Queue: 2 jobs
Job 1
Amino acid sequence: MAESTTLVALFPDIDPAAEAVESLRSLGVADDQIEIISGIPLLEPALGRPKRRTMVPRLALGGAFLGSLLGLFLAYGIPILFPLRVGGQPIFPGPPGIILVFEMTMLGLMGSAFIGVFLESYLPAWRPLKYVPDVSNGKIALLFNCPETDQEKFIQAMQALGAENVEPAVARQL
């Protein structure tokens, strides 16, 4: 199997970067081997990329379920374990119990969604990451893997589409 190298192409605008993604696909680069770094958040369709699937919604639903179980236990389980009879009051609180279950459900949902986003963002970064400082100045960087034997063909294709700079990517500790 041929050795592959990671190249970074720097584009001044979104349109040439989107054309470059299509060009890379036509040159045989798979979508999972293309990474886009931008200083502003860009939706996947803006660059012709497939929609990413994340685990955040599943984690949030799981947190909401666990939070509602905790709320049910606090509102209705504790009065079963430790009944406290106060003259004329029911053992199980009605409206306060509903409020407690709702609040614990939302707390579980928000907490697990926050943790999910934190984990999906690869924070903290323990390993060196590929980064281009010009991205902070409004440029769009396109990182992609290509065979070392065809490296010159990829460089010429990116420069023909308007890339300002095409060079091997360097990973460094941020």
Job 2
Amino acid sequence: MEPRRVGKFEKVSYEEFEKAVKEILPEKNMDIKSVYENIKIPCRGTALAAGYDFFAPFDIVLKPKETIKIPSGIRCWMEENYFLAIVPRSSFGFKFRLQLDNTIGIIDADFSDSKMKGHMMIKITNDTVEDKILEIKAGQGFVQGIFLPYAITYDDDVHNFREGGFGSTDKQNT
């Protein structure tokens, strides 16, 4: 039985990607246009894989305990009552203790319509205890996204919609 299709990945606009790279990584010396043109859309590696591999948009080198916030260049549309969970690929977790700084990324269905235009940022840390340098080449998969359904409580009466990006939903419930 084929799984249900609930979402779609696409690139953010070049302008959105360029703005994020300049804001988040001003010290990185790169040809932003070329990086943008080479961004790969997340995909599954095999027919029975649950996770969609996200690919590094540029080379990443992290010494032990170093952190980087990566503009993925990717946004995602998905059906209501689903979310996208972002987790490290197993091999990087095992070899380097690669950690997402928020432990697991939760991308809500209304994130793609936010003021950020759904541009997913991925912040990772090389949390090795063995002094290993983590090297991820441009185009190499380093995290994965898994679509999951969710449910709500019987007394839930929320009617707000997202107006911003990361961390914006807690401001709407105050």
